[in-house]
Amino acid sequence: MILRAAFRALPSIFHGAALRLLLKTLLLTLFAFALLAAALWGGIHAARLHFGWGATAGWSGLAEAAATTLAMLAAAWLLFRAVAMAIMTLFADDIIVAVERDSYPQAAARACPVGWGRSLHFALRSLARTLGWNLIALPAYVLLLVTGIGTIGLFLVLNAYLLGRDLSDMVEPRQPDLPPIPRGSRWLMGLVSALIFLVPVLNLLAPIWSAAMAVHMLHGRQRNPA
User: Fold this and answer.
1) Domain segments of the chain: what residues?
2) How large is the C-alpha radius of gyration of the chain?
């Protein structure tokens, strides 16, 4: 079921609504990371001046840039998915409505609009949940680096759960008459999404692809209840 939903969702990436949402999500995500980079550089610069680190102006500027770059690489690994998904949640109705109208027109006709306020609530809850759990897991991520694959394994297991929750929150409120996606299927859906987020370039499409996949997971089960 999960693989069928993932493959059925693939063409949705090229839908006009999906491309507009993708551009909006990427631009806002990049803007958020630009603000974060500026804040990190400002903090590092202020700390250097306060503690008197680096007497040579040229070398001190290079050290600030290097420290900011390393911090941003770590932040991007930990936060890209969280920020992109939170931003997309605000506008998720764009792609969800498009997929439902194309593939499930009867369900689309009886759907309940989520509304901006509720979408904002879901987005903030998604961001807080993802940041919180990944910060708790950060020491384990670092310790498992010596295993070679342990960090990636823990990342996938944890974020599969978190992504499954996020994706369910996107699609289920629009169809309150349908049974929710079961926990096992929800985790598998999150796992596929987490794997997509790990693939360079493809991870840029992951939020849109995942949202479309969640629509097919919710509605496809009604056609194939087994």
Assistant:
1) 2-12+79-223
2) 20
